[in-house]
């Protein structure tokens, strides 16, 4: 009910919506509406009310509210089914559980904080309460497992485009899964998948975006490589608006992938790359070696040139790519 009332207030925008209309649309009593308006106010929503005119939403707190995210996204599927936790171990774990129980394509899990936020290869993800977006989307692409890595790049492209749109910052992609602002990591992406012999059953795409941390909010050992949108722009951003923009970008790019193939994603990542042209350190099972990142292949794999001038393809997931000078 809270969600439905909030949605009506958001849809009314700058106009008043009468208590009577809310009652009619939702089939509830005036007293019930009043009770929810009161609870929303207690949670920091500023709602004007005037006799005979009705209610109007004036301002919102920076809570993770499903109605705000859905409204900001304006999507068909991505970020429409939503679960929010105040605290959980990892949104990827919660989303995997939901996926196994039949969560639809685009289902989204968010948390104000994570007690066991996960990075790749057993690493952790620092999840300062209320200061970042910690979210995981369930995707159900109708294709085989070998094609799944493109979804990580697609998500990185969606985050990069959303940050450029909402925060007006350049947000290039460190192939294949980090988004960088001014040379530091503002977002990391962790994809996990369940597949059978033929097809992907689901992919859980975990996205962590640093929004409102100050530098002292990061543990000392990552201060040289981590940053937040607040640190880089000096501005605060509503996390729900940002989550909505990421969902919108994701849906647009996902639809395009399904109808027209990988071309647009690879092209976006090529044009917004923090990796191409850089000296990189490839960390493989056989050892480490230096190379220069020169291009992305048509399928999104990284093409590097080794010190002997030979070109080769790097498949994401098989190696770790590091810039020589840092992240
Ligand atoms: P990654 O392995 O590329 O990056 C993890 C590394 O990044 C850590 O070892 C640390 O050095 C650094 N790091 C840790 N926390 C942060 C941070 N907040 N900002 C910048 N750098 C950091 C990248 O893994 C994938 C991260 C995905 C996180 C999301 S959050 C929602 C979802 N749930 C979950 O458990 N993980 C994903």
TrEMBL record:
Cellular component per GO, a single term: cytoplasm
CDD domains named among the record's database cross-references: BPL, HTH_ARSR
Molecular-function GO terms, alphabetical: ATP binding; biotin--[biotin carboxyl-carrier protein] ligase activity; DNA binding; transferase activity
Species assigned in the record: Luoshenia tenuis
Protein name: Bifunctional ligase/repressor BirA
InterPro entries noted in UniProt: aa-tRNA-synth_II/BPL/LPL, ArsR-like_HTH, Bifunct_BirA, Biotin_CoA_COase_ligase, BPL_C, BPL_LPL_catalytic, HTH_11, Transcriptional_repressor_C
Role summary: Acts both as a biotin--[acetyl-CoA-carboxylase] ligase and a repressor.
Group of enzyme by EC: ligase
GO biological process: protein lipoylation; regulation of DNA-templated transcription
UniProt-listed Enzyme Commission number(s): 6.3.4.15
Residues reported in the UniProt entry to bind biotin: 90-92, 114, 118-120, 185
């Amino acid at each position: 009910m809270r969600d439905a009332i909030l949605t009506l207030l958001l849809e009314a925008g700058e106009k008043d919506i009468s208590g009577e209309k809310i009652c009619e649309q939702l089939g509830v009593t005036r007293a019930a509406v009043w009770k929810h308006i009161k609870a929303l106010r207690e949670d920091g929503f500023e709602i004007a009310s005037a006799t005979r005119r009705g209610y109007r939403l004036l301002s919102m707190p920076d809570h993770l509210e499903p109605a705000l995210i859905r409204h900001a996204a304006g999507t068909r599927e991505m970020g429409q089914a939503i679960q929010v936790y105040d605290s959980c171990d990892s949104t990827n774990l919660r989303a995997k559980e939901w996926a196994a129980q039949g969560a639809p394509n685009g289902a989204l899990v968010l948390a104000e904080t994570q007690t066991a936020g996960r990075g790749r290869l057993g690493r952790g993800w620092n999840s300062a309460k209320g200061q970042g977006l910690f979210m995981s989307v369930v995707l159900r692409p109708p294709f085989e497992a070998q094609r799944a890595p493109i979804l990580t790049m697609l998500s990185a492209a969606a985050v990069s485009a959303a940050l450029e749109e909402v925060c007006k910052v350049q947000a290039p992609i460190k192939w294949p899964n980090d988004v960088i602002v001014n040379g530091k990591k503002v977002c990391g992406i962790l994809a996990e998948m369940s597949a059978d012999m033929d097809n992907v059953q689901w992919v859980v795409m975990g996205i962590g975006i640093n929004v409102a941390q100050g530098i002292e909010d990061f543990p000392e050992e990552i201060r040289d490589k981590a940053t937040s949108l607040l640190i880089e722009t000096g501005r605060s951003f509503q996390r729900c608006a940002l989550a909505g923009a990421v969902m919108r970008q994701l849906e647009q790019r996902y639809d395009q992938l399904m109808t027209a193939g990988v071309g647009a994603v690879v092209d976006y990542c090529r044009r917004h790359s923090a990796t191409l042209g850089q000296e990189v350190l490839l960390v493989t099972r056989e050892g480490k070696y230096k190379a220069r990142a020169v291009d992305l292949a048509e399928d999104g794999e990284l093409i590097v040139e080794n010190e002997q001038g030979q070109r080769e393809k790097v498949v994401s997931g098989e190696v770790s790519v590091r810039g020589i000078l840092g992240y």
